[in-house]
Amino acid sequence: MLNSWKYFAATMAGAHKVTLHTQHGTQILQADASAIGRFVFDGPEQSFLGDWHIELSKDSPDAANLQEAASRLRDTDIPVAFPTETVYGLGADATRSAAVRGIYSAKGRPSDNPLIIHISSLSNLRRLLAPKTPSVSGLETPPDPVPPIYYPLISRFWPGPLTILLPLPTPSPLAAEVTASLPTVAVRMPSSTLALALIHLANVPIAAPSANASSKPSPTTAAHVLHDLSGRIDLILDGGPCGVGVESTVVDGLVNPPVILRPGGVSIDMLRSCPGWENVQVEYKDGAETRTPRAPGMKYKHYSPNARVLLFRGQMDAECAKRYLGKGTRIGVLTTKTWQKEPLQSVSRIPGEPSTSTVNSHVINGYRRAHEARECRGSEPAIAEIMPSLMPVPIPSAQYSRIELSDQDIYEVWTVGLGQSTAGIARGLFSALRELDQKGVDIIFVEGIDDNEGHAAAAIMNRLRKAAEAEIVL
Ligand code: TXA
Ligand code: MG
Known about the structure:
The protein has helices spanning 4-12, 61-75, 97-107, 122-129, 151-157, 176-179, 193-202, 222-229, 268-272, 318-322, 370-377, 383-386, 422-438, 457-467, and strands at residues 19-21, 27-30, 37-41, 52-56, 80-82, 89-93, 116-118, 162-167, 184-188, 206-207, 235-238, 249-252, 259-262, 281-282, 308-313, 331-335, 348-349, 359-364, 391-396, 399-404, 410-417, 443-447, 470-473. The protein has 474 residues and is α/β, with parallel strands linked by helices. The strands form 4 sheets. It has a 12-stranded mixed β-sheet with strand order 1-2-11-5-6-10-7-9-8-12-13-14, sandwiched between helices. Strands 17-20-21-16-22-15-23 form a 7-stranded mixed β-sheet, with helices on one face. The two termini are 42 Å apart.
């Protein structure tokens, strides 16, 4: 496997577009969204919801890499990993069974867990799902396959981290493997301009789960994808770290009242502010499942690092920590809003031992809702105008220390501070769990947050509860 530091150094080389090959043959192609070309809006909507096309920059290595990824999606059965604003997805042509089966086998995903299809325009979605009934006069327009309940959400949150359930038409243009025999299909339009451009160029709907090995935390960088799927896929399109960091919110508006099947980047309060969604209900379970979940994926072990994860509410201290420690247990600590300084209070640090405090300044795709930018700038903006150029966002890395608890046993501790902003916690969460795993810790103590503390708070706690063996209220 490619040494992750070499990979990081190559990524940071910046000016030179690098194609990386791993020893196992998985290629990483870099694509800077701001250097691929220019979007042109063709429809009356003058937005991604209508018709649009892209004028690719000639001689741009980023555009060439993007085209390579699109042609692999079109022409091969081996899935391609690509960035979205939420997490990296593992994509395949949703209309071809062999291609979709490639996703399940690369991830080791159970075949009864259906996939989200990713689209690049609302008009394409209508064309895809409109029943192909020949009209008598030849003039009638087919009924809109998107139920009216969804339009308030679509106009506000698409493109963006929201997935809606739609009735699957018969006959269906989608491969049966996408929906795992359900009568509905989950659909989302990502706001990552790289993802939108890729789907548009592939010219097919793209089925894509998160690009992690099944049960592992979702990937928010190309390096995470490589760690899980090296040798299992041929190509990863690297657009930098994901801006949101947790997956999309999945909603079902086909039932009354509508329900949230998975919490994500769009919060319940944001949904409730939309007409028809004031009474949206929570259908997912955060703790142990007691009945068959409506979103099949929610029943599986998820987001699990190798280490034991214990989720805490309240201030943890040494006395409390000791209950979970054996001799020489290596400890990971993940702090959020309040465990800022000394999560393991009343312990003595071993003098002279390193306590490295490093912050890696990774480069992240500046995530901004494309339609917000459009409102400010009018139509036909260059991609560079919609998405601000790559900007550095600090992703905290683990600090090492050695501590002595009152029993005189000495423990090694790696601490990741995710900061106090809910958006920052969401962005760094999966990365932090993966990093602590790589340090080889045996147990991870996590500081939980209030479910209602901002946009992605419920999603953060949902993922943590699924990763944790217990939630402990102190
Ligand atoms: O942000 C995201 O949604 C990411 C990126 C790549 O777009 N994708 C993602 O996909 O998280 P995945 O496969 O990891 O999660 C999809 C969730 C699963 O819980 C699945 O069971 C549910 O959506 N789902 C898919 N189709 C469904 C359907 N027809 N009915 C109910 N739930 C469905
Ligand atoms: Mg997933």
